[in-house]
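Components:
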Amino acid sequence: MTMIDLRGVRRDFLVGDQTVHALDDINLNIAAGEYVSIMGPSGSGKSTLLNLVGLLDRPNSGHYLLDGEDVTTLSDVQQAHTRNRRIGFVFQAFHLVPRLTAAENVELPLVLAAMAPQERRRRVATALQALNLSDRARHKPEQLSGGQRQRIAIARATITEPDVLLADEPTGNLDHKSGGDVIDTLEALNRRGITLIVVTHDAELGARAGRRILMCDGRIEADARTGTA
Amino acid sequence: MTGSDISRFAWTALRGYPTRTLLMLIATAIGVAAVIVLTSLGEGARRYVTDEFSSLGTNLLIVFPGRSETAGFNPTTMMGETPRDLTLDDALALTRSYSVRRIAPLNVGAADISWRNRQREVTVIGTTHEMLAIRHWELAQGDFLPATDLDLATPVCVIGGRIRSKLFGARRALGQWLRIGDRRFRVIGVMASEGRSIGVDVQETVMIPVASAQQLFNTPSLFRILVEARSRDAIQPVKRFIVDTLKARHQGEKDVTVVTQDAVLATFDRIFSALTYAVGGIAAISLMVAGILIMNVMLVAVSQRTAEIGLLKALGAAPRQIVTLIIAEAFLLSLLGATLGLLLGQATSAGIRQAFPVLPAQAPVWAVVTAVLVALTTGVLFSLLPARRAARLDPVLALSRR
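Structure:
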């Protein structure tokens, strides 16, 4: 069943007096539960594509249907609500709030959703336990290793039980071993049903995905699948 | 987000940047404290003057020779040009009303006094026995001027405490003959040390019977007549009685001015209230400055925390929630600053009261409430701009900045 449906999506940026087509007529379907990697050189538009899918950006033209609903026409507030409930982000730079503890960082999306405190704490404890990070709950981000930070960020991205997890270079700031831990965590989530979209430079990481999209100059150059789709 | 979540988040944001928070707290606190201390000084001055005037006596009316065109109290009535003198007979005529409890005619002049080889220039007040009761003065030794007929020039005097110590030192003053001008007076009393009031320092005066003073200064006229009404309600009837009586005695011409103590009090009250409002207003400007500082700091905070705001948006914070968070932070900052300033201001006022007991420096309630409200509203108003800027931040740009 198609979950993400991009139809004729364009996104232009004005750089100086020149218009750059970051996304040039993109048509893309992604089904629920897929594991997709998006690869391509710098400036190929892969991050822009991810931002559009994550509702952080709006296309200049074209439509984006999420579960059949056109989300490009939603208001800011509705988009924010959709991001909160249905989409999780994992960033290369982790983006943990430095003054909050690990647990408080994980709790943040639930706080924004105005969930009751007891329920919040219960969920956060479960999420941290699942990632084997219970003993780090009261640590500040600066007291954690890079791998631990990214896994906290993953816990935060998935705490609202979203349908889609968007990861932008999730291992870009990590060494090989912690990068492997992070990938294992993401793939375990995908096996439990979450739709996983990873943007990466890393060919080895990109190759692990069931569906590999190659982008260049704002267009999809290749779209390959292995196994059953 | 619930209210407690918002305030907790704002609190962690303030704690996350302690230096910035501390400086802002100080700025707001100084503003609030300035309003409280300055208005408490103004209020203290007002109450000081009011108390001084009340100590002139109770239910008091003051009769001046001369007329001012407008009723009430103004500086020219103090200087009073004199078309027709007030005389002792005028004063006597004023006793003929049930509503008048007592009167005291008053004559004032400067004269040299001497005892043996010691000499001194002092203020000499000519008055009567009633003066003691009207002004609530107290005696340290002896008696006050005797209760005799007004026109009896008895050669006795009552001296202020400081004059007694300067002239007689440790010796007994009572019964001594004091030379005032070219006459001799026997000292029959010494004033108690308290009893200071506007214009006259009792410590530095010599009091003699009014008729003696008229002889001494060679004048038939009086400087003032103090009239004490029987009650507060009697003040206005007594005022009419005085004017009518003196008008009849002065060939139908109203050439005296009667000022009630209330009118004098009300005037000073107005002057000092205006003064308090003025200094309060000036101090409030410092609060506005604090508000602008808050705006600056919140703008810096927004650009410092661009990534954090972008993240909040990515996590699903609506623009409204971002605005709420930033305003909550500024509000919390102003609230803490205002509380700090309130304590600081009240403590300083209390310190002033301790150091200068005569000055009842206590900030009026309206000033305290206004100071705190102005601090809070400026805090919130000046954080609207930074908050809106934060809410409009493009999350993609905000997050891509490392």
